Amino acid sequence: MPWDINHKQKSRQRILEAAAKLFVEQGFDGVGIDEVMEKANMTRGAFYSHFKSKSQLYHEAIPVAGLVAKQQLEVGCQNSFKALKHNYLHQSNDTQKTQLCPIALLISDIRHRDPEIRKTYEKVFSGFVDYIDSHMDDRKGALVQAATMIGAVALAQTLTDESLKEELLSACESAAHNDM
User: Fold this and answer.
1) Which fold has domain 7-179?
2) PROSITE patterns recorded for this chain (predicted)?
3) Euclidean distance between the first and the last CA atom of the chain, given in angstroms as a whole number
4) d(CA 155, CA 179)
5) Which residue in 31, 140, 171, 180 has the most C-beta neighbors within 10 A?
6) pLDDT digits (tens, 9 = 90+) for 80-108
């Protein structure tokens, strides 16, 4: 039986989604091609019919991670920035979320990558700021909110004291953009 006409694109998307999740969780150096392909339920040989290298995969997986995370964070928000901000700051507490924000969790990993990967990360970050700005209509405030939210989530991932983590996230959540 011949393959579905969209089979190659669907396979590529499965690889990108698997890689996005793994890269966000473990960083570039913590993930191997075999692990990505296993998560995508495909063979290693199939990888090379879609990507030239692990770096190319990383480059293409970052925006996918951002898009999937955005879709998950929007659930239940009804276009409310306050609800979105809550979901963003508490994303690691929600076991239903399968994709955490790559902007926050790859922040230190990205600075060690080549300029093209850094540009991709920058585009994802810029899109995040634009998205916040669409709720606030205040570019400067959107930049402050983005930096606060991303920094809080990145920092919270490093803390072992759960009460301190919750205190940090709650403080950032209650910080109104008008106060900044």
Assistant:
1) Tetracycline Repressor; domain 2 (1.10.357)
2) HTH_TETR_2 (PS50977)
3) 61
4) 22
5) 31
6) 899 999 989 988 776 556 788 999 999 88
